[in-house]
Design a protein that fits this description.
With 266 residues, this protein is an alpha/beta fold. It folds into two domains: 116 residues, Beta Barrel (Elongation Factor Tu (Ef-tu), domain 3); 137 residues, Nucleotide-binding domain of ferredoxin-NADP reductase (FNR) module (Rossmann fold, 3-Layer(aba) Sandwich), CATH 3.40.50. It contains four helices and 14 strands. The protein binds flavin-adenine dinucleotide. The site of flavin-adenine dinucleotide has 19 residues, from strand 5, strand 7 and helix 1.
């Protein structure tokens, strides 16, 4: 159910030149129940002294949507919905963006209003394998989905037969834009049903990447680096509208059924 939350900033971590991880603590109500993949609506206050944003009254807050990037239920033994008294947002700071500037300047003393959770970009309840094809901060809802699904399942060994395989293909421009590498390496080390590849679209060689990490990288785009399975796999796409349209066209041209494609446009 969508609710209004009063919160405050707990931490702000800069991950790259333009991507930050924000953690918000909930004050009232103090628990958020959400399904991994859902988003929150941020209310950005506007000054009465400034001209109104298009379509709004003077002083009326503007709304921006941000996918929850963190684990749903740290203490739950079950995957799926879970409660938490804080949550993370992964945000690309857009120069002169209204919400971006607000978030960049935010301190822990300022009350921040959210509504949520909302959205349908959540795991379908089936036993199909899951392939995630995401670009940039499109990793945010997928991180929440993967952390929750894998952390709440038993670790697998290379000899066991996992029920569901999770494959992540994550597109970023260059090696300097990479974050969460250690986290995904650790997840893959513990869960043999999780593999990931970071696809660097603007690098021409992988030699600048430390040798031990090179296995996790490929050159090119996410769809350059995939073997499609048409029978037992769902494809989850997240990124800009242009990227999503292009990936949907690619999957459709390769005979993936529309009902096996789940997407979120940022
Ligand atoms: C369901 C959903 C979930 C989302 N989740 C996330 C998330 O987890 N992390 C995240 O970072 N964003 C996410 N977004 C995007 C987010 O809602 C904002 O659109 C984004 O942060 C820009 O807001 P802003 O107010 O800072 O910029 P605005 O003031 O809206 O835009 C300023 C200018 O920048 C342009 N602009 C807007 N976005 C971009 C962009 N990505 N690249 C280049 N130029 C741009 C605009 O056209 C405008 O000219 C999500 C969007 C949706 C619909």
């Amino acid at each position: 159910m969508v609710q209004t939350y009063k919160s405050h900033l707990l931490s702000k971590q800069q991950l790259t030149h333009n991507v930050y991880l924000f953690r918000f603590g909930l004050d009232e109500p103090n628990e958020l129940i959400f399904t991994p993949g859902q988003y929150m609506i941020l209310f950005v206050p506007q000054s009465e002294d400034e001209p109104a944003s298009p379509g709004l009254q003077r002083g009326e807050p503007i709304c921006r949507l941000y996918s929850i990037a963190s684990l749903a239920s740290p203490n739950s033994a079950l995957a799926g919905e879970g409660g938490t008294n804080s949550f993370e947002l992964l945000i690309e700071i857009i120069p002169n963006g209204l919400a971006s500037e607000f978030l960049l300047k935010l301190d822990s003393a300022t009350e921040v209003t959210f509504q949520g959770p909302a959205g349908q970009f959540t795991l379908a309840q089936n036993n199909k394998d899951k392939v995630f094809m995401v670009t940039g901060t499109g990793i945010a809802p997928v991180r929440s989905i993967l952390l929750t699904a894998l952390t709440n399942s038993q670790p697998t060994t290379h000899n066991s037969s996992p029920i569901t395989n999770y494959q992540l293909l994550w597109g970023l421009p260059t090696f300097k834009d990479v974050y969460f590498l250690e986290e995904f390496k650790q997840l893959a080390a513990v869960h043999s049903n999780f593999t990931f590849t970071i696809c660097l679209s603007r690098e021409t060689k992988l030699s600048s990447i430390p040798e031990e990490d090179r296995q996790f990288f490929k050159l090119g785009h996410v769809n350059d680096n995939i073997q499609l399975d048409l029978t037992n796999t769902d494809y989850y796409l997240c990124g800009s509208p242009k990227v999503i349209e292009s990936l949907k066209s690619y999957l459709a041209a390769n005979n993936v059924e529309p009902n096996s494609i789940i997407f979120e446009k940022f």
